[in-house]
């Protein structure tokens, strides 16, 4: 579980996060949505410790990040998996080496043990026959799978995904969404996804946090988002005609 | 950057592999172009010297002497380093810069890896072997000069070799290698700095490589001036 209490962050004179408080539960896929410039990326990076917050508290299973020693922070980082928007796979490594990287860096596992774990994870994300390929030799959807495999290989307690569906076709995007949700349930991970993709919101949004100008303007579940009267959420989520029709159908009981 | 590089070092089993990879990328991969340039420039130095010795009273062994002095004192350590600022420097800046724009450095940091230690330290260690490259350049430069002088009919083999031995100061070799080590440090750090701290996209990676080449060359020239002043005056 991640508890966020009154978090503020500013760059120069510009306050990007203006007092955010929320909770992300284990075994649940939580989605952070909002317009570009609403503070989503800064929020995620603050949770990851990439940005130092100016005010507030972030606690990982009760451990307050700001009060941790360097060793404790390092230990916490080894419990975090991250899927970047562009996958951020290491170009010079094969799929297998990319996935095994966190194990090689942070565990004392033997080469055989690493290979076994990597093979297991590769199979889990349906990446067979790609072990020795470089990231440039596989498709965008496969790159995302490799990124997810790398993020979960070390059994993380927390999984962060930044726009995991960006650049993917709708079918592959749904597969990736479902994969993230399955893994979240299977390993009881606290998963936080930063997304613009409304399909993801409707598919896997067990908790949705809507950010607007550095503040939480609304939070709820995918079921609640259909019925909300919050104007900012309605304007953002139901901007396309398709979603307007879906919402109308849901509200009218069809 | 240098101070941060030593925080949270990467474990030795991983670092060893990174250093070997950098030796391959930076040292071994540079040998071909260094050999080619050194051999032909050594030859040109010998020919130019010979063509300028128009006075019959000047001994022909000066061709060997001039070739040795030019290659050991300046051509091999300084000019090869400037060429390497283009070759190695742009490789270092563009590879680290690309990792920056594709979030690979962020990925390392989020995992808890000290990205400076992971990316820059192995390059600095690998470039401790840079004097080997310069040693090869010295040998091939003089050998190229020998072949051009002897087979071009400008001097006999005996005259050229006698010239190589005339007024030989062993400290000149030491001076050349001290310079080389200083240049190796500049070659590893300046391009790394420009790659690591760059912002933007693919276009900026190209710009960073160019800026890194310019600054590396400038620093090599200035360092060369001061080291020559300090060590040879």
Could you explain the architecture of this structure?
The complex is a heterodimer of chains A (about 250) and B (about 230). Chain A is α/β, with parallel strands linked by helices and about 250 residues long. Chain A has helices spanning about 40-50, 70-75, 95-105, 110-125, 140-150, 170-185, 200-205, 220-225, 230-235, 240-250; strands at about 1-10, 15-25, 30-35, 55-60, 65, 80-85, 160, 190-195, 205-210, 215-220. In chain A, helix 3 runs parallel beside helix 5. The longest helix of chain A has 17 residues, at about 170-185. The mean pLDDT of chain A is about 90. With about 230 residues, chain B is an all-alpha fold. In chain B, helix 3 crosses helix 8 (about 155-165) and helix 3 runs parallel beside helix 9 (about 170-195). Chain B is elongated and about 70 Å long.
Provide a quick synopsis of the model.
The complex is a heterodimer of chains A (254) and B (233). Chain A has helices spanning 40-48, 70-77, 95-106, 111-124, 140-152, 170-186, 198-204, 222-227, 231-237, 241-251; strands spanning 2-11, 14-24, 28-34, 55-60, 63-64, 80-83, 158-162, 190-194, 207-212, 215-220. With 254 residues, chain A is of the alpha/beta class.
Approximate shape of chain B = elongated
**How far apart, in Å, are the first and last alpha carbons of chain B?**
33 Å
Major sheet details of chain A: 6 strands, mixed
The main β sheet of chain B shows up as: none
Overall pLDDT level of chain A: 88
Summarize model confidence as the mean pLDDT of chain B.
93
Our estimate of the beta-strand percent of chain B is under 5%
Structural class given helices, strands, pairing of chain B? Answer: mainly alpha
Which strand-content bin applies to the residues of chain A?
Answer: 15-25%
- Catalogue the unreliable spans of chain B: none
Number of strands of chain A: 10
Gyration radius of chain A (Cα, Å) is: 19 Å
* Spatial strand order of the main sheet of chain A: 6-7-8-3-9-10
Number of helices of chain B: 10
């Amino acid at each position: 579980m991640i508890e966020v209490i009154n978090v503020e962050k500013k760059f120069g004179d510009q306050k990007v996060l203006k007092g955010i408080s929320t909770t992300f539960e284990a075994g649940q896929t939580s989605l952070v949505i909002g317009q570009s410039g609403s503070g989503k990326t800064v929020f995620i990076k603050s949770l990851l410790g990439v940005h130092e917050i100016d005010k507030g508290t972030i606690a990982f299973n009760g451990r307050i990040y700001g009060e941790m020693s360097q060793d404790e922070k390092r230990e916490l980082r080894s419990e975090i998996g991250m899927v970047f928007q562009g996958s951020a796979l290491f170009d010079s490594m094969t799929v297998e080496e990319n996935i095994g990287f966190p194990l090689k860096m942070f565990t004392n596992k033997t080469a055989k043990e690493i290979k076994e774990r990597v093979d297991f994870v590769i199979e889990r994300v349906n990446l067979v026959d790609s072990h020795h390929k470089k990231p440039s030799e596989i498709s965008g959807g496969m790159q995302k799978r490799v990124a997810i495999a790398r993020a979960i290989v070390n059994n993380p307690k927390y999984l962060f995904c930044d726009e995991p569906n960006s650049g993917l076709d709708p079918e592959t995007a749904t597969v990736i969404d479902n994969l993230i949700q399955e893994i979240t349930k299977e390993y009881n991970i606290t998963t936080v996804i930063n997304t613009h993709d409304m399909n993801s919101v409707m598919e896997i949004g067990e908790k949705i946090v809507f950010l607007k100008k550095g503040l939480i303007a609304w939070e709820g579940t995918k079921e609640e988002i259909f019925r909300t009267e919050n104007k900012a959420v309605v304007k953002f989520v139901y901007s396309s005609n398709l979603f307007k029709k879906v919402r109308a159908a849901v509200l009218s009981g069809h | 950057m240098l101070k941060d590089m030593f925080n949270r070092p990467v474990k030795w089993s991983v670092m060893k592999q990174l250093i070997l990879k950098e030796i391959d990328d930076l040292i071994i991969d540079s040998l071909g172009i260094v050999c080619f340039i050194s051999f032909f420039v050594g030859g040109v130095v010998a020919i130019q010297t010979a063509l300028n010795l128009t006075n019959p009273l000047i001994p022909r062994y000066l061709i060997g002497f001039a070739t040795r002095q030019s290659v050991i004192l300046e051509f091999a350590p300084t000019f090869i380093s400037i060429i390497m600022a283009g070759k190695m420097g742009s490789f270092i800046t563009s590879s680290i810069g690309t990792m920056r724009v594709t979030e690979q450095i962020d990925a390392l940091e989020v995992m808890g890896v000290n990205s400076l230690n992971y990316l820059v330290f192995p390059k600095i260690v690998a470039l401790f072997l840079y004097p080997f490259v310069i040693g090869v350049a010295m040998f091939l430069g003089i050998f190229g000069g020998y072949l051009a002088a002897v087979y071009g009919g400008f001097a006999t083999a005996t005259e050229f070799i006698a010239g190589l031995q005339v007024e030989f100061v062993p400290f000149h070799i030491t001076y050349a290698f001290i310079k080389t080590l200083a240049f190796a440090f500049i070659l590893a750090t300046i391009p790394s700095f420009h790659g690591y701290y760059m912002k933007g996209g693919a276009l900026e990676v190209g710009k960073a490589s160019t800026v890194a080449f310019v600054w590396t060359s400038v620093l090599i020239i200035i360092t060369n001036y001061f080291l020559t002043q300090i060590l040879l005056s």
